[in-house]
Amino acid sequence: MAELSLSRESGGFVQARRHTGNTLTEPVWVQTLLTLIVITFISLFLILPLIFIFTEAFQSGISAYFASISSPEALSSIYLTLTVLVIVVPINTAFGVLLAWTMTKYRFKGKSLIVTLADLPFSISPVIGGLIFVLLFGDHSILGRWLLSQNIQLVFNTTGIVIATLFVTYPFVARELIPLMENQGSLEEEASLILGAGTLRTFFKITLPNIKWGLLYGVILCSARSIGDFGAVSVISGHIVGQTNTMPLQVEAFYDGYQMTAAFALSSLMSVVAIVSLILKSYFDWKNTRPA
Amino acid sequence: MVSQNHSEKKTKVKRRQIIPGFGLSLGLSLSYLSLLVLIPLSMIFIYTSQIGWGGFLREISQPIVVSAYQLSFTTALVASLINLVFGVLTAWVLVRYSFPGRKLIDGLLDLPFALPTSVAGITLATLYATNGWIGHLLPFKVSYTQVGIVVALILIGMPFVVRIVEPVLQNLEKENEEASAILGANRFQTLVHVVFPKIRLAAFSGFALAFSRALGEYGSVVFIAGNMPFKTEIAPLVVMQKLEAFDYDGATSVALVLLVASFLILFLINFSQWVVKRKFAD
User: Of B153, B174, B176, B267, which is most buried by a Cβ count within 10 Å?
Assistant: First the structure.
Protein backbone atom coordinates (compact mmCIF):
# COMPACT_ATOMS: atom_id res chain seq x y z
CA MET A 1 0.00 0.00 0.00
CA ALA A 2 2.78 2.36 0.96
CA GLU A 3 4.51 1.73 -2.33
CA LEU A 4 1.35 2.40 -4.24
CA SER A 5 0.73 5.76 -2.60
CA LEU A 6 4.38 6.64 -3.15
CA SER A 7 4.11 5.79 -6.78
CA ARG A 8 1.42 8.38 -7.25
CA GLU A 9 4.03 11.08 -7.04
CA SER A 10 6.31 9.91 -9.81
CA GLY A 11 4.76 10.08 -13.24
CA GLY A 12 6.19 6.81 -14.56
CA PHE A 13 4.64 4.67 -11.83
CA VAL A 14 1.23 6.21 -12.19
CA GLN A 15 1.25 5.21 -15.79
CA ALA A 16 2.32 1.72 -14.84
CA ARG A 17 -0.48 1.58 -12.30
CA ARG A 18 -3.04 2.72 -14.74
CA HIS A 19 -1.78 0.14 -17.19
CA THR A 20 -2.03 -2.51 -14.48
CA GLY A 21 -5.59 -1.52 -13.69
CA ASN A 22 -6.62 -2.12 -17.26
CA THR A 23 -5.01 -5.53 -17.48
CA LEU A 24 -6.21 -7.00 -14.19
CA THR A 25 -9.72 -7.73 -15.34
CA GLU A 26 -11.37 -8.28 -18.65
CA PRO A 27 -13.00 -5.29 -20.39
CA VAL A 28 -16.61 -4.72 -19.33
CA TRP A 29 -18.01 -5.78 -22.71
CA VAL A 30 -16.13 -9.09 -22.46
CA GLN A 31 -17.44 -9.65 -18.94
CA THR A 32 -20.99 -8.92 -20.06
CA LEU A 33 -20.67 -11.17 -23.09
CA LEU A 34 -19.26 -14.11 -21.10
CA THR A 35 -21.92 -13.73 -18.41
CA LEU A 36 -24.67 -13.66 -21.03
CA ILE A 37 -23.27 -16.79 -22.72
CA VAL A 38 -23.28 -18.65 -19.40
CA ILE A 39 -26.79 -17.48 -18.51
CA THR A 40 -28.09 -18.54 -21.95
CA PHE A 41 -26.42 -21.94 -21.69
CA ILE A 42 -27.79 -22.61 -18.21
CA SER A 43 -31.26 -21.35 -19.16
CA LEU A 44 -31.40 -23.55 -22.21
CA PHE A 45 -30.21 -26.71 -20.47
CA LEU A 46 -31.45 -26.36 -16.89
CA ILE A 47 -34.06 -23.66 -16.32
CA LEU A 48 -36.18 -24.18 -19.44
CA PRO A 49 -36.48 -27.98 -18.96
CA LEU A 50 -37.48 -27.43 -15.34
CA ILE A 51 -40.22 -24.96 -16.29
CA PHE A 52 -41.32 -27.31 -19.08
CA ILE A 53 -41.84 -30.25 -16.69
CA PHE A 54 -44.34 -28.27 -14.62
CA THR A 55 -46.07 -26.73 -17.65
CA GLU A 56 -46.65 -30.17 -19.15
CA ALA A 57 -47.73 -31.64 -15.82
CA PHE A 58 -50.43 -29.01 -15.32
CA GLN A 59 -51.40 -28.77 -19.00
CA SER A 60 -54.73 -30.54 -18.53
CA GLY A 61 -55.55 -28.73 -15.32
CA ILE A 62 -55.02 -29.27 -11.63
CA SER A 63 -57.63 -32.01 -11.24
CA ALA A 64 -56.02 -34.05 -14.05
CA TYR A 65 -52.70 -33.57 -12.32
CA PHE A 66 -53.93 -34.93 -9.01
CA ALA A 67 -55.84 -37.72 -10.75
CA SER A 68 -52.67 -38.88 -12.46
CA ILE A 69 -50.44 -38.80 -9.40
CA SER A 70 -53.05 -40.73 -7.42
CA SER A 71 -53.61 -43.45 -10.01
CA PRO A 72 -52.88 -46.95 -8.66
CA GLU A 73 -49.75 -47.31 -10.82
CA ALA A 74 -48.37 -43.95 -9.71
CA LEU A 75 -49.11 -44.62 -6.05
CA SER A 76 -47.56 -48.07 -6.13
CA SER A 77 -44.42 -46.65 -7.77
CA ILE A 78 -44.19 -43.91 -5.14
CA TYR A 79 -44.58 -46.51 -2.41
CA LEU A 80 -41.88 -48.75 -3.90
CA THR A 81 -39.43 -45.86 -4.38
CA LEU A 82 -39.92 -44.74 -0.77
CA THR A 83 -39.47 -48.31 0.50
CA VAL A 84 -36.17 -48.62 -1.38
CA LEU A 85 -35.12 -45.19 -0.10
CA VAL A 86 -35.66 -45.95 3.60
CA ILE A 87 -33.74 -49.23 3.33
CA VAL A 88 -30.85 -48.04 1.14
CA VAL A 89 -29.99 -44.61 2.53
CA PRO A 90 -29.39 -45.58 6.21
CA ILE A 91 -27.24 -48.59 5.23
CA ASN A 92 -25.10 -46.65 2.77
CA THR A 93 -24.82 -43.67 5.11
CA ALA A 94 -23.44 -45.91 7.87
CA PHE A 95 -20.96 -47.67 5.57
CA GLY A 96 -20.07 -44.40 3.84
CA VAL A 97 -19.15 -42.76 7.14
CA LEU A 98 -17.22 -45.88 8.16
CA LEU A 99 -15.28 -45.90 4.88
CA ALA A 100 -14.46 -42.18 5.14
CA TRP A 101 -13.37 -42.66 8.77
CA THR A 102 -11.14 -45.62 7.84
CA MET A 103 -9.59 -43.74 4.91
CA THR A 104 -8.84 -40.54 6.82
CA LYS A 105 -8.13 -41.42 10.44
CA TYR A 106 -5.61 -44.23 9.94
CA ARG A 107 -2.38 -44.50 8.00
CA PHE A 108 -1.90 -47.59 5.89
CA LYS A 109 -0.82 -48.64 2.42
CA GLY A 110 -3.20 -49.16 -0.48
CA LYS A 111 -5.53 -46.40 0.59
CA SER A 112 -5.82 -44.74 -2.79
CA LEU A 113 -6.55 -48.10 -4.42
CA ILE A 114 -9.48 -48.65 -2.05
CA VAL A 115 -10.78 -45.12 -2.67
CA THR A 116 -10.57 -45.67 -6.43
CA LEU A 117 -12.38 -49.01 -6.20
CA ALA A 118 -15.04 -47.51 -3.94
CA ASP A 119 -15.66 -44.83 -6.58
CA LEU A 120 -16.36 -47.39 -9.31
CA PRO A 121 -20.18 -47.49 -8.98
CA PHE A 122 -20.15 -43.74 -9.60
CA SER A 123 -18.41 -43.90 -12.95
CA ILE A 124 -19.52 -47.17 -14.49
CA SER A 125 -22.69 -47.48 -16.53
CA PRO A 126 -25.81 -48.01 -14.39
CA VAL A 127 -26.80 -50.75 -16.84
CA ILE A 128 -23.69 -52.66 -15.73
CA GLY A 129 -24.82 -52.09 -12.13
CA GLY A 130 -27.95 -54.07 -12.92
CA LEU A 131 -26.28 -56.67 -15.12
CA ILE A 132 -23.80 -57.83 -12.47
CA PHE A 133 -26.59 -58.77 -10.05
CA VAL A 134 -28.52 -60.60 -12.76
CA LEU A 135 -25.32 -62.58 -13.40
CA LEU A 136 -24.59 -63.13 -9.71
CA PHE A 137 -28.09 -64.10 -8.53
CA GLY A 138 -29.44 -65.67 -11.74
CA ASP A 139 -28.60 -69.20 -12.84
CA HIS A 140 -25.24 -68.11 -14.29
CA SER A 141 -23.15 -68.48 -11.14
CA ILE A 142 -22.62 -71.12 -8.47
CA LEU A 143 -24.19 -68.79 -5.90
CA GLY A 144 -27.16 -68.05 -8.13
CA ARG A 145 -27.84 -71.73 -8.87
CA TRP A 146 -27.66 -72.54 -5.15
CA LEU A 147 -30.00 -69.65 -4.28
CA LEU A 148 -32.48 -70.75 -6.93
CA SER A 149 -32.35 -74.36 -5.69
CA GLN A 150 -33.29 -72.98 -2.27
CA ASN A 151 -36.11 -71.03 -3.92
CA ILE A 152 -34.50 -67.70 -3.08
CA GLN A 153 -35.17 -65.18 -5.84
CA LEU A 154 -32.99 -62.07 -5.50
CA VAL A 155 -33.50 -60.43 -8.90
CA PHE A 156 -36.59 -59.24 -10.74
CA ASN A 157 -38.23 -58.22 -7.45
CA THR A 158 -37.99 -55.59 -4.70
CA THR A 159 -34.96 -57.25 -3.09
CA GLY A 160 -33.14 -56.99 -6.40
CA ILE A 161 -34.04 -53.33 -6.75
CA VAL A 162 -32.76 -52.65 -3.22
CA ILE A 163 -29.46 -54.44 -3.90
CA ALA A 164 -28.91 -52.64 -7.22
CA THR A 165 -29.73 -49.29 -5.60
CA LEU A 166 -27.31 -50.05 -2.75
CA PHE A 167 -24.66 -50.57 -5.44
CA VAL A 168 -25.25 -47.38 -7.43
CA THR A 169 -25.56 -45.13 -4.36
CA TYR A 170 -22.59 -46.62 -2.50
CA PRO A 171 -19.96 -43.91 -3.21
CA PHE A 172 -21.95 -40.75 -2.49
CA VAL A 173 -21.53 -40.31 1.28
CA ALA A 174 -17.84 -41.26 1.34
CA ARG A 175 -17.09 -39.04 -1.68
CA GLU A 176 -18.40 -36.01 0.20
CA LEU A 177 -16.74 -36.89 3.50
CA ILE A 178 -13.23 -37.99 2.51
CA PRO A 179 -11.92 -34.59 1.32
CA LEU A 180 -13.64 -32.85 4.24
CA MET A 181 -12.20 -35.22 6.87
CA GLU A 182 -8.77 -35.16 5.23
CA ASN A 183 -8.68 -31.38 5.65
CA GLN A 184 -9.78 -31.60 9.27
CA GLY A 185 -7.06 -34.09 10.19
CA SER A 186 -7.35 -36.17 13.36
CA LEU A 187 -5.78 -33.95 16.03
CA GLU A 188 -9.11 -33.33 17.78
CA GLU A 189 -9.88 -37.05 17.87
CA GLU A 190 -6.42 -37.79 19.25
CA ALA A 191 -6.85 -35.17 21.96
CA SER A 192 -10.20 -36.64 22.92
CA LEU A 193 -8.74 -40.15 23.14
CA ILE A 194 -5.78 -39.00 25.21
CA LEU A 195 -8.19 -37.29 27.59
CA GLY A 196 -9.83 -40.65 28.14
CA ALA A 197 -12.88 -40.79 25.88
CA GLY A 198 -13.54 -44.07 24.05
CA THR A 199 -13.49 -44.40 20.27
CA LEU A 200 -17.27 -44.38 19.90
CA ARG A 201 -17.67 -41.42 22.22
CA THR A 202 -14.93 -39.59 20.33
CA PHE A 203 -16.72 -40.29 17.07
CA PHE A 204 -20.11 -39.03 18.27
CA LYS A 205 -18.82 -36.03 20.24
CA ILE A 206 -15.94 -34.87 18.04
CA THR A 207 -16.04 -36.28 14.51
CA LEU A 208 -19.76 -36.24 13.85
CA PRO A 209 -20.36 -32.58 14.80
CA ASN A 210 -17.37 -31.62 12.61
CA ILE A 211 -18.66 -33.38 9.52
CA LYS A 212 -22.42 -33.00 9.92
CA TRP A 213 -23.08 -30.56 7.04
CA GLY A 214 -20.94 -32.52 4.60
CA LEU A 215 -22.59 -35.71 5.80
CA LEU A 216 -26.07 -34.28 5.26
CA TYR A 217 -25.16 -33.28 1.72
CA GLY A 218 -23.82 -36.78 1.07
CA VAL A 219 -27.10 -38.22 2.37
CA ILE A 220 -29.06 -35.89 0.07
CA LEU A 221 -27.06 -36.97 -2.97
CA CYS A 222 -27.42 -40.61 -1.96
CA SER A 223 -31.20 -40.17 -1.61
CA ALA A 224 -31.50 -38.33 -4.92
CA ARG A 225 -29.69 -41.13 -6.72
CA SER A 226 -31.73 -43.75 -4.86
CA ILE A 227 -34.97 -42.14 -6.04
CA GLY A 228 -33.76 -41.43 -9.54
CA ASP A 229 -31.75 -44.45 -10.60
CA PHE A 230 -33.03 -45.76 -13.89
CA GLY A 231 -30.47 -47.94 -15.65
CA ALA A 232 -29.64 -50.45 -12.91
CA VAL A 233 -33.22 -50.76 -11.70
CA SER A 234 -34.44 -51.08 -15.28
CA VAL A 235 -32.30 -54.20 -15.76
CA ILE A 236 -33.30 -55.71 -12.41
CA SER A 237 -37.00 -54.94 -12.31
CA GLY A 238 -38.15 -57.14 -15.16
CA HIS A 239 -40.79 -54.50 -15.95
CA ILE A 240 -43.80 -55.79 -14.06
CA VAL A 241 -46.21 -52.84 -13.87
CA GLY A 242 -47.73 -52.24 -10.45
CA GLN A 243 -45.35 -54.63 -8.81
CA THR A 244 -41.76 -53.65 -9.48
CA ASN A 245 -41.95 -50.20 -11.04
CA THR A 246 -40.10 -47.45 -9.21
CA MET A 247 -41.03 -43.83 -9.98
CA PRO A 248 -38.52 -43.37 -12.84
CA LEU A 249 -39.64 -46.67 -14.40
CA GLN A 250 -43.28 -45.66 -14.08
CA VAL A 251 -42.45 -42.38 -15.83
CA GLU A 252 -41.06 -44.43 -18.68
CA ALA A 253 -44.19 -46.64 -18.73
CA PHE A 254 -46.50 -43.61 -18.86
CA TYR A 255 -44.37 -41.93 -21.53
CA ASP A 256 -44.25 -45.03 -23.71
CA GLY A 257 -48.03 -45.30 -23.34
CA TYR A 258 -48.43 -41.68 -24.54
CA GLN A 259 -49.88 -40.66 -21.14
CA MET A 260 -47.94 -37.40 -21.17
CA THR A 261 -49.75 -35.67 -18.33
CA ALA A 262 -49.21 -38.67 -16.07
CA ALA A 263 -45.53 -38.98 -17.08
CA PHE A 264 -44.82 -35.30 -16.44
CA ALA A 265 -46.93 -35.18 -13.27
CA LEU A 266 -44.87 -37.97 -11.73
CA SER A 267 -41.72 -36.24 -13.06
CA SER A 268 -42.80 -33.01 -11.41
CA LEU A 269 -42.90 -34.74 -8.01
CA MET A 270 -39.33 -35.92 -8.47
CA SER A 271 -38.33 -32.46 -9.72
CA VAL A 272 -39.70 -30.92 -6.52
CA VAL A 273 -37.54 -33.37 -4.56
CA ALA A 274 -34.56 -32.40 -6.71
CA ILE A 275 -35.15 -28.66 -6.19
CA VAL A 276 -35.54 -29.12 -2.43
CA SER A 277 -32.23 -31.05 -2.41
CA LEU A 278 -30.52 -28.18 -4.17
CA ILE A 279 -31.91 -25.63 -1.70
CA LEU A 280 -30.80 -27.81 1.22
CA LYS A 281 -27.38 -28.16 -0.40
CA SER A 282 -26.96 -24.38 -0.63
CA TYR A 283 -28.04 -24.12 3.01
CA PHE A 284 -25.52 -26.76 4.13
CA ASP A 285 -22.78 -25.06 2.11
CA TRP A 286 -23.60 -21.77 3.77
CA LYS A 287 -23.59 -23.41 7.22
CA ASN A 288 -20.31 -25.11 6.42
CA THR A 289 -18.42 -22.04 5.25
CA ARG A 290 -19.88 -19.61 7.78
CA PRO A 291 -17.42 -19.06 10.63
CA ALA A 292 -18.82 -20.57 13.83
CA MET B 1 23.27 -52.75 10.15
CA VAL B 2 22.63 -50.24 12.82
CA SER B 3 21.02 -47.80 10.46
CA GLN B 4 18.85 -50.56 9.00
CA ASN B 5 17.68 -51.49 12.48
CA HIS B 6 17.02 -47.89 13.16
CA SER B 7 14.91 -47.44 10.06
CA GLU B 8 12.97 -50.61 10.84
CA LYS B 9 12.18 -49.27 14.25
CA LYS B 10 11.14 -45.98 12.70
CA THR B 11 8.65 -47.59 10.31
CA LYS B 12 7.21 -49.60 13.16
CA VAL B 13 6.63 -46.47 15.18
CA LYS B 14 5.14 -44.79 12.14
CA ARG B 15 2.71 -47.64 11.57
CA ARG B 16 1.26 -47.58 15.05
CA GLN B 17 -2.20 -46.11 14.92
CA ILE B 18 -3.15 -43.55 17.52
CA ILE B 19 -6.90 -44.01 17.09
CA PRO B 20 -8.00 -47.53 18.04
CA GLY B 21 -10.37 -49.65 15.98
CA PHE B 22 -8.28 -49.79 12.80
CA GLY B 23 -8.74 -53.53 12.22
CA LEU B 24 -12.48 -53.44 12.78
CA SER B 25 -13.06 -50.32 10.64
CA LEU B 26 -10.95 -51.57 7.76
CA GLY B 27 -12.39 -55.08 8.00
CA LEU B 28 -16.00 -53.93 7.92
CA SER B 29 -15.37 -51.38 5.15
CA LEU B 30 -13.56 -53.89 2.96
CA SER B 31 -16.14 -56.63 3.55
CA TYR B 32 -18.98 -54.36 2.51
CA LEU B 33 -17.02 -53.04 -0.49
CA SER B 34 -16.22 -56.59 -1.58
CA LEU B 35 -19.72 -57.98 -1.11
CA LEU B 36 -21.53 -55.07 -2.76
CA VAL B 37 -19.09 -53.88 -5.42
CA LEU B 38 -16.04 -56.05 -6.07
CA ILE B 39 -17.51 -59.57 -6.10
CA PRO B 40 -20.53 -58.57 -8.22
CA LEU B 41 -18.26 -56.66 -10.65
CA SER B 42 -15.91 -59.62 -10.90
CA MET B 43 -18.88 -61.61 -12.26
CA ILE B 44 -18.43 -59.77 -15.56
CA PHE B 45 -14.83 -60.99 -15.81
CA ILE B 46 -15.70 -64.52 -14.63
CA TYR B 47 -18.60 -64.82 -17.01
CA THR B 48 -16.57 -63.50 -19.96
CA SER B 49 -13.73 -65.92 -19.17
CA GLN B 50 -16.28 -68.75 -19.46
CA ILE B 51 -17.18 -67.55 -22.95
CA GLY B 52 -13.48 -67.46 -23.84
CA TRP B 53 -11.44 -65.01 -25.93
CA GLY B 54 -12.83 -66.21 -29.22
CA GLY B 55 -16.43 -65.86 -28.11
CA PHE B 56 -15.76 -62.49 -26.52
CA LEU B 57 -14.11 -61.10 -29.65
CA ARG B 58 -16.90 -62.50 -31.82
CA GLU B 59 -19.51 -60.76 -29.66
CA ILE B 60 -17.83 -57.37 -29.59
CA SER B 61 -16.92 -57.35 -33.28
CA GLN B 62 -20.51 -57.66 -34.47
CA PRO B 63 -21.16 -54.66 -36.76
CA ILE B 64 -24.05 -53.47 -34.59
CA VAL B 65 -21.86 -53.51 -31.47
CA VAL B 66 -18.93 -51.78 -33.17
CA SER B 67 -21.18 -49.00 -34.45
CA ALA B 68 -22.71 -48.60 -30.96
CA TYR B 69 -19.25 -48.26 -29.43
CA GLN B 70 -18.28 -45.68 -32.05
CA LEU B 71 -21.47 -43.74 -31.44
CA SER B 72 -21.14 -43.83 -27.63
CA PHE B 73 -17.50 -42.81 -27.78
CA THR B 74 -18.01 -39.97 -30.27
CA THR B 75 -21.10 -38.47 -28.64
CA ALA B 76 -19.54 -38.73 -25.16
CA LEU B 77 -16.39 -37.03 -26.45
CA VAL B 78 -18.25 -34.19 -28.19
CA ALA B 79 -20.53 -33.60 -25.20
CA SER B 80 -17.70 -33.58 -22.65
CA LEU B 81 -15.58 -31.27 -24.82
CA ILE B 82 -18.51 -28.83 -24.96
CA ASN B 83 -18.89 -29.23 -21.20
CA LEU B 84 -15.16 -28.62 -20.76
CA VAL B 85 -15.34 -25.26 -22.54
CA PHE B 86 -18.61 -24.15 -20.94
CA GLY B 87 -17.59 -25.59 -17.57
CA VAL B 88 -14.39 -23.53 -17.38
CA LEU B 89 -16.26 -20.47 -18.65
CA THR B 90 -19.10 -20.95 -16.13
CA ALA B 91 -16.69 -21.48 -13.23
CA TRP B 92 -14.80 -18.32 -14.25
CA VAL B 93 -17.94 -16.20 -14.53
CA LEU B 94 -19.33 -17.52 -11.23
CA VAL B 95 -16.11 -16.96 -9.29
CA ARG B 96 -14.89 -13.68 -10.79
CA TYR B 97 -17.97 -11.69 -11.85
CA SER B 98 -20.97 -10.63 -9.86
CA PHE B 99 -24.32 -10.29 -11.56
CA PRO B 100 -27.96 -10.65 -10.54
CA GLY B 101 -28.95 -14.32 -10.38
CA ARG B 102 -25.40 -15.58 -9.78
CA LYS B 103 -26.39 -17.48 -6.63
CA LEU B 104 -29.40 -19.02 -8.39
CA ILE B 105 -27.28 -20.27 -11.28
CA ASP B 106 -24.64 -21.58 -8.89
CA GLY B 107 -27.28 -23.51 -6.97
CA LEU B 108 -29.01 -24.84 -10.08
CA LEU B 109 -25.80 -26.28 -11.51
CA ASP B 110 -26.12 -29.43 -9.40
CA LEU B 111 -29.57 -30.15 -10.85
CA PRO B 112 -28.28 -32.88 -13.20
CA PHE B 113 -27.04 -34.77 -10.11
CA ALA B 114 -30.39 -34.45 -8.35
CA LEU B 115 -32.84 -34.88 -11.23
CA PRO B 116 -33.64 -38.49 -12.21
CA THR B 117 -32.20 -39.29 -15.63
CA SER B 118 -35.51 -40.55 -17.00
CA VAL B 119 -37.13 -37.21 -16.12
CA ALA B 120 -34.33 -35.37 -17.93
CA GLY B 121 -34.76 -37.79 -20.83
CA ILE B 122 -38.48 -37.34 -21.45
CA THR B 123 -38.20 -33.59 -20.92
CA LEU B 124 -35.40 -33.08 -23.44
CA ALA B 125 -37.03 -35.44 -25.94
CA THR B 126 -40.27 -33.42 -25.84
CA LEU B 127 -38.54 -30.00 -25.76
CA TYR B 128 -36.33 -30.78 -28.76
CA ALA B 129 -38.93 -32.70 -30.79
CA THR B 130 -39.79 -31.03 -34.11
CA ASN B 131 -42.98 -29.61 -32.55
CA GLY B 132 -41.38 -28.87 -29.14
CA TRP B 133 -40.58 -25.53 -27.54
CA ILE B 134 -36.96 -25.52 -28.72
CA GLY B 135 -37.21 -28.05 -31.54
CA HIS B 136 -39.61 -26.01 -33.67
CA LEU B 137 -37.21 -23.04 -33.61
CA LEU B 138 -34.30 -25.07 -34.97
CA PRO B 139 -33.74 -25.66 -38.70
CA PHE B 140 -32.51 -29.23 -38.06
CA LYS B 141 -33.87 -32.27 -36.18
CA VAL B 142 -32.49 -32.85 -32.67
CA SER B 143 -34.69 -35.45 -30.99
CA TYR B 144 -34.20 -38.96 -32.39
CA THR B 145 -30.84 -38.03 -33.94
CA GLN B 146 -27.21 -38.15 -32.77
CA VAL B 147 -27.43 -34.43 -31.97
CA GLY B 148 -30.14 -35.35 -29.46
CA ILE B 149 -27.80 -37.82 -27.76
CA VAL B 150 -25.17 -35.07 -27.43
CA VAL B 151 -27.79 -32.69 -25.96
CA ALA B 152 -28.74 -35.25 -23.29
CA LEU B 153 -25.08 -35.96 -22.48
CA ILE B 154 -24.31 -32.23 -22.16
CA LEU B 155 -27.08 -31.92 -19.58
CA ILE B 156 -26.01 -34.87 -17.43
CA GLY B 157 -22.29 -34.00 -17.61
CA MET B 158 -22.66 -30.29 -16.95
CA PRO B 159 -21.69 -30.03 -13.25
CA PHE B 160 -18.43 -32.02 -13.35
CA VAL B 161 -15.99 -29.46 -14.81
CA VAL B 162 -17.59 -26.47 -13.03
CA ARG B 163 -17.56 -28.12 -9.61
CA ILE B 164 -13.90 -29.17 -9.88
CA VAL B 165 -12.58 -25.92 -11.39
CA GLU B 166 -14.59 -23.56 -9.12
CA PRO B 167 -12.66 -24.19 -5.85
CA VAL B 168 -9.32 -24.02 -7.70
CA LEU B 169 -10.22 -20.59 -9.09
CA GLN B 170 -11.40 -19.45 -5.67
CA ASN B 171 -8.06 -20.41 -4.12
CA LEU B 172 -6.02 -18.82 -6.89
CA GLU B 173 -3.88 -16.01 -5.56
CA LYS B 174 -4.55 -12.80 -7.43
CA GLU B 175 -0.95 -11.72 -6.83
CA ASN B 176 0.19 -13.94 -9.69
CA GLU B 177 -2.10 -12.15 -12.10
CA GLU B 178 -1.02 -8.78 -10.72
CA ALA B 179 2.63 -9.70 -11.17
CA SER B 180 1.94 -10.79 -14.72
CA ALA B 181 0.13 -7.53 -15.45
CA ILE B 182 2.88 -5.40 -13.91
CA LEU B 183 5.45 -7.25 -16.00
CA GLY B 184 3.59 -6.02 -19.05
CA ALA B 185 1.36 -8.90 -20.08
CA ASN B 186 -2.04 -8.04 -21.43
CA ARG B 187 -5.12 -9.69 -19.96
CA PHE B 188 -5.28 -12.37 -22.61
CA GLN B 189 -1.63 -13.31 -22.07
CA THR B 190 -2.18 -13.42 -18.29
CA LEU B 191 -5.16 -15.73 -18.70
CA VAL B 192 -3.36 -18.06 -21.08
CA HIS B 193 0.02 -18.18 -19.33
CA VAL B 194 -0.82 -17.61 -15.65
CA VAL B 195 -4.41 -18.62 -14.93
CA PHE B 196 -4.87 -21.44 -17.40
CA PRO B 197 -1.91 -23.61 -16.26
CA LYS B 198 -3.30 -23.52 -12.70
CA ILE B 199 -6.71 -24.89 -13.64
CA ARG B 200 -5.57 -27.24 -16.39
CA LEU B 201 -5.43 -30.38 -14.26
CA ALA B 202 -8.74 -29.72 -12.51
CA ALA B 203 -10.41 -29.05 -15.85
CA PHE B 204 -8.98 -32.28 -17.24
CA SER B 205 -10.24 -34.30 -14.25
CA GLY B 206 -13.71 -32.82 -14.67
CA PHE B 207 -13.62 -33.56 -18.39
CA ALA B 208 -12.58 -37.18 -17.77
CA LEU B 209 -15.33 -37.68 -15.16
CA ALA B 210 -17.94 -36.18 -17.48
CA PHE B 211 -16.70 -38.36 -20.32
CA SER B 212 -16.85 -41.49 -18.19
CA ARG B 213 -20.35 -40.65 -17.02
CA ALA B 214 -21.46 -39.89 -20.59
CA LEU B 215 -20.05 -43.17 -21.91
CA GLY B 216 -22.23 -45.19 -19.56
CA GLU B 217 -25.30 -42.96 -19.49
CA TYR B 218 -28.54 -44.73 -20.24
CA GLY B 219 -31.65 -43.11 -18.74
CA SER B 220 -31.56 -39.68 -20.34
CA VAL B 221 -30.33 -40.89 -23.71
CA VAL B 222 -32.81 -43.68 -24.52
CA PHE B 223 -35.73 -41.28 -24.68
CA ILE B 224 -34.17 -38.71 -26.99
CA ALA B 225 -32.05 -41.04 -29.13
CA GLY B 226 -34.76 -42.89 -31.05
CA ASN B 227 -32.62 -46.04 -30.68
CA MET B 228 -32.25 -46.98 -34.33
CA PRO B 229 -29.61 -49.70 -34.82
CA PHE B 230 -26.45 -48.39 -36.57
CA LYS B 231 -27.68 -44.80 -36.21
CA THR B 232 -28.69 -43.83 -32.70
CA GLU B 233 -28.17 -46.96 -30.61
CA ILE B 234 -25.66 -46.40 -27.79
CA ALA B 235 -23.58 -49.18 -26.21
CA PRO B 236 -25.43 -49.37 -22.84
CA LEU B 237 -28.67 -49.81 -24.80
CA VAL B 238 -27.12 -52.72 -26.72
CA VAL B 239 -26.35 -54.34 -23.34
CA MET B 240 -29.96 -53.83 -22.31
CA GLN B 241 -31.42 -55.22 -25.52
CA LYS B 242 -29.18 -58.28 -25.43
CA LEU B 243 -30.30 -58.89 -21.85
CA GLU B 244 -33.94 -58.61 -22.83
CA ALA B 245 -33.30 -61.20 -25.54
CA PHE B 246 -31.63 -63.43 -22.87
CA ASP B 247 -28.33 -63.15 -24.78
CA TYR B 248 -26.16 -63.06 -21.65
CA ASP B 249 -22.94 -63.80 -23.55
CA GLY B 250 -23.45 -60.78 -25.77
CA ALA B 251 -24.59 -58.45 -22.97
CA THR B 252 -21.65 -59.34 -20.73
CA SER B 253 -19.07 -59.02 -23.49
CA VAL B 254 -20.33 -55.60 -24.55
CA ALA B 255 -20.45 -54.53 -20.89
CA LEU B 256 -16.88 -55.70 -20.24
CA VAL B 257 -15.48 -53.20 -22.75
CA LEU B 258 -17.46 -50.36 -21.12
CA LEU B 259 -16.31 -51.48 -17.68
CA VAL B 260 -12.64 -51.56 -18.69
CA ALA B 261 -13.00 -48.09 -20.25
CA SER B 262 -14.40 -46.76 -16.94
CA PHE B 263 -11.57 -48.43 -14.99
CA LEU B 264 -8.96 -46.82 -17.24
CA ILE B 265 -10.49 -43.35 -16.97
CA LEU B 266 -10.78 -43.59 -13.19
CA PHE B 267 -7.18 -44.73 -12.80
CA LEU B 268 -6.01 -42.01 -15.18
CA ILE B 269 -7.71 -39.34 -13.05
CA ASN B 270 -6.34 -40.74 -9.80
CA PHE B 271 -2.88 -41.16 -11.32
CA SER B 272 -2.78 -37.54 -12.53
CA GLN B 273 -3.83 -36.35 -9.08
CA TRP B 274 -1.15 -38.54 -7.51
CA VAL B 275 1.49 -37.02 -9.82
CA VAL B 276 0.43 -33.53 -8.79
CA LYS B 277 0.47 -34.39 -5.09
CA ARG B 278 4.03 -35.69 -5.50
CA LYS B 279 5.05 -32.58 -7.38
CA PHE B 280 3.79 -30.38 -4.56
CA ALA B 281 5.35 -32.61 -1.89
CA ASP B 282 8.84 -32.17 -3.39
Answer: B153
Rounded Cα–Cα distance for residues B261 and B221 (Å)? 19
Measured in angstroms, the CA of B19 and the nearest CA of chain A are apart by 7
**Closest residue of B to A108, CA-based?**
B15
Q: Over chain B, what is the mean pLDDT? A: 88
**Is the Cα torsion angle B32, B35, B39, B40 positive or negative in sign?**
negative
pLDDT in tens, B56-74: 999 999 999 999 999 999 9
User: Which residue of A49, A228, A279 is in closest CB contact with B124?
Assistant: A49
pTM above 0.90, yes or no: no
pLDDT score for B5:
46
Record: contact B119-A23, CB cut-off 8 A: no
Q: What angle do CA B177, B208, B49 make, to 5 degrees?
A: 160
Nearest-angstrom CA–CA distance, B216 and B209: 11
| Chain A residues whose beta carbon lies within 8 Å of the beta carbon of residue B32 | 95, 98-99
Q: Provide the number of structural domains found in chain A.
A: 2
Q: Is the CA virtual torsion B220, B208, A280, B151 positive or negative?
A: negative
Q: Are residues B142 and B151 in contact, defined by beta-carbon separation less than 8 angstroms?
A: yes
Instruction: Select the residue from B37, B239, B264, B267 to test the A interface by mutation, using most A Cβ atoms within 10 A.
Output: B37
Question: DSSP alpha helices (H): ranges in B97-115?
Answer: 102-108, 111-114
Instruction: Using an 8 Å CB-CB cutoff, list chain A residues near B25.
Output: 98, 101-102, 105-106
Q: Which among B39, B105, B213 has the least Cβ separation from residue A42? A: B105
DSSP-derived secondary structure letter, B138: S
Interchain proximity B265–A53, CB inside 8 Å? no
A228 pLDDT above the threshold of 90: yes
Q: Is residue B71 part of a domain?
A: yes
Question: Same domain for A92 and A194?
Answer: yes
Q: How many domains does chain B have?
A: 1
From chain B, the residues in CB contact with A28 under 8 A are: none
* CA angle (B263, B268, B273) in 5-degree steps: 130
Cα angle for residues B111, B158, A178 (degrees, 5° grid): 75
Report if residue A26 sits inside a domain. Answer: yes
Q: Same domain for A73 and A41?
A: no
**Minimal-distance CA residue of chain A relative to B19:** A190
